[in-house]
Please model this.
Amino acid sequence: MQFMLLFSRQGKLRLQKWYVPLSDKERKKISRDLVQTILARKPKMCSFLEWRDLKIVYKRYASLYFCCAVEDQDNELITLEIIHRYVELLDKYFGSVCELDIIFNFEKAYFILDEFLLGGEAQETSKKNVLKAIEQADLLQEVSSFAVDRFSAH
Amino acid sequence: MGPVHTVYGPALLCAGAGCSQQFGAQPQWIWFLSSSYVGAHSTTLMPTVSKGDGMRGLAVFISDIRNCKSKEAEIKRINKELANIRSKFKGDKALDGYSKKKYVCKLLFIFLLGHDIDFGHMEAVNLLSSNKYTEKQIGYLFISVLVNSNSDLIRLINNGIKNDLASRNPTFMNLALHCIANVGSREMAEAFAFEIPSILVAGDTMDSVKQSAALCLLRLNRTSPDLVPMGEWTARVVHLLNDQHLGVVTAATSLITTLAQKSPDDFKTSISLAVARLSRIVTSASIDLQDYTYYFVAAPWLSVKLLRLLQCYPPPEDAALRSRLTECLETILNKAQEPPKSKKVQHSNAKNAVLFEAISLIIHHDSEPTLLVRACNQLGQFLQHRETNLRYLALESMCTLASSEFSHEAVKTHIDTVINALKTERDVSVRQRAVDLLYAMCDRSNAKQIVAEMLSYLETADYSIREEIVLKVAILAEKYAVDYTWYVDTILNLIRVAGDYVSEEVWYRVIQIVINRDDVQGYAAKTVFEALQAPACHENLVKVGGYILGEFGNLIAGDSRSSPLVQFSLLHSKFHLCSVPTRALLLSAYIKFINLFPEVKATIQDVLRSDSQLRNADVELQQRAVEYLKLSCIASTDILATVLEEMPPFPERESSILAKLKRKKGPGKLPDIDENRRNVNGSSEHSENTDTTNKVSYVLNLNSSPSTGPSLLVDVFSDSSTSASVDVSEDNFSRFVCKNNGVIYENQLLQIGLKSEYRQNLGRIYVFYGNKTSTQFLSFSSFVTSSDILKTHILHCLIASYPIIEGGAQVQQILNIECVSDFTDAPVLNIQFRYGGTLQNIAVKLPVMLNKFFQPTEMTSQDFFQRWKQLGAPQQEVQKIFKAQHPMDTDVTKAKILGFGVALLDGVDPNPANFVGAGVIHTKSTQVGCLLRLEPNAQAQMYRLTLRTSRESVSQRLCELLGEQF
Model:
């Protein structure tokens, strides 16, 4: 996978993950073009399209579009299920996840993604294992933030 | 506005009974969220629940931004925040970790909104060096997202990573590995590419760290493959395919696939392990994969990856392994026929993901006809599936299947469904796939239907794909034209339907073809003339029409309805509506008319003389008008006829349209529509190899003294000192086996054309040298050389020389040839001249072949078989079995055999698909009777050619010559 973008119906990027080296400018151009292309498509259309030399796999969940760019030899359907598994992970972690969870806890969305996908490939496809890793980290976090909150004003 | 479902918005997933089973397929809350600048009711509430450590300051900031009513307000708020953070970072008071983390997070958020961030890196590096997990994590995230190439910074980051990798704390190690994988820079590869393999294969490494290490290495290998060392660890990585932890296997499979693509030999052992693993997942029903089962499908991600890995290799050589793999693939195909275990789309997607990957592997192996045909049938079912996604993928996958010789025919049976898809699919990306598939499945049998369908689709096709369809139609029409009138009609239709999308390459090509094929010139002239009658016709049609009438208008001028004057008036009626380049082309057509039809000379001169031409503001048009007018006034009819002679044939070359389509689609994306379809295990390559060795050995035979390598040519043509260093061009040699006229050689300066006549053992060749430049050739000389052996077999006349050949001029040389006895080599034409001060040396192999001295012989079936039997000695027969290199077309084959010089005997062979011929080779000393039989096998795209003559060397040579023509 070359990159993954999450964006709203209004075209606002909510999360972007790049697995290939690209300049900021290129990233912005790609995101803009792609968001525009996908938002222009009708609901019943196919989830795949050819775009430049990449295959785009996307799916809409409520107000949010999940979009992955994969290479020519990659499997479209399994990419579609990568998206779904990621949504399931977010859902399980946040409890009925919605777009706002991702906006306000964007760092968590990144951490979950890193546990699931690394270098553009599935690292761990078991939902239990991914969540276990995240929860362990949260445990470390809660202990430390408790300690901080007692001493910090803000 | 719709109903509010929850406090702050709709869940992305809806598991309740009220929801449709397809997540997000029909979103009901489209008004929701992120309409930041809308108004009071969109003011967002902060999440009531926050996981982990809520950074309140960050949440407040995000809320503020979301409540901004305009872009300006947002920028103002951000600038205020940036100033605040800057002052905090620069302040005297040391910040505690929590504040640092909060501010770095804010910067990250601002960056992700699309604003530039040029500070905070140092604070992030401090965070990632912290001992607190929560700070470390944010520090790494910032660095991963905002990569910075500042070298001091990188040293510090690498230092932090190094410490974490050495910490033996798996959570810290994972964070460090994630960071390397996310950044993937060269500097990081230099620092860690040596260390990570040992982490990956160490016995005491935790599973989760192994997974991160594997994919980290994969990323480094993608970005800096030269820095990832191969070594002892690679063998141990392969054994991770046997690991008990499926997560480890999944990550390792991805890594091995990437490495195997780079150096397949080093990872060959992975084949058997991958097959074994796949077999355990796919074929054993009882195995419980627990959490790796996804919607009732066992480990779909891992299965896809294993199948992908196997595509790095040819089919396994070991028979047991091969049958185990075949069993897996069959099971996957069988499962596709079973009723679904769940109605959820996730179930069918995961199942079909594995199925499509299995089909990819089957196509990649291209060795099991049964599997290929089953795959094709399965895809055929998907072509009519109600899921658009499956229809799309089936069309895409069939495209590759069409290029396998085993399944090409099976794919063709779906033509009606595909045409229907082209007409009824509502999604342009699906229709695009249908066009691609039609292009891939096209061959001579269905070309007319497919081209007609594409043309009619073109009328309503999306603008974005029109140009590509135009190119495809043009290529197919040319490639499969048996009847060139159909080709001309098709291209003119293309211009009519989609003139704006017809690129120059397309209309250049139609003109090249009309000029090169005299059987279609009259038809083309008539057709463009008729097409130009339309009140509004596309400018591209005016171009084609102008050019063709200018060359071949005389062929229809006999009809009073298309008399010269009518033709001219028709063209000129379009003149004023056209762009400058088209007008320039029309002016050239007019001067050609003056040559073709003296009766319209005065009319055309009047036009050229008018102010709008002679004083045209455009320099090119003005110059043409002035020069053409002058030329028509002062040149004699003879000179005019020479200057404005019909265009000579274009050299045959790869269609520029095909080159353009290849450019457009990118390399490797264009399905191979060549008749020479992919062959089992590349045996077509093999036959090419044999060909070259044959050629080499035959040249060697010529040579009495053994010699090798570069000196070969020198020896062969030793009587010519000048040709010693020149490569002999043989490019067009074989084209002349079955024909006598055409262009034998062409470079940027010179074109050499031939016309030859043969009678019995005598031949005459007219050689035409055309100076293509505008400058003189000086001291032009040409002479024919041949090897000593050849000299005794054929005689010819030798030298011609011209002190000067003017720019653009053509001179002619005549060669007389006599065949003394049978021969194999061909004489060489050596040319020498000065152009712009440099000496040019060219050597061209002259197409004087043994078969030129054929006289066709008609005979009855009875006679034929009687002689056939008489020539039954083993050395008299030579047979060759070879792959078809051109479309297997009966008419073309007949024409070639006739061109070869023998008589075609009908009704001799019991199988009407075979060709039988007879002829006599005349040499001065003797005559050699010759019988031949050619058996095409359309299914295998192969031919068998058998020649029987009384002389072994003649059988051999004729077989060599004819065997390369089909």
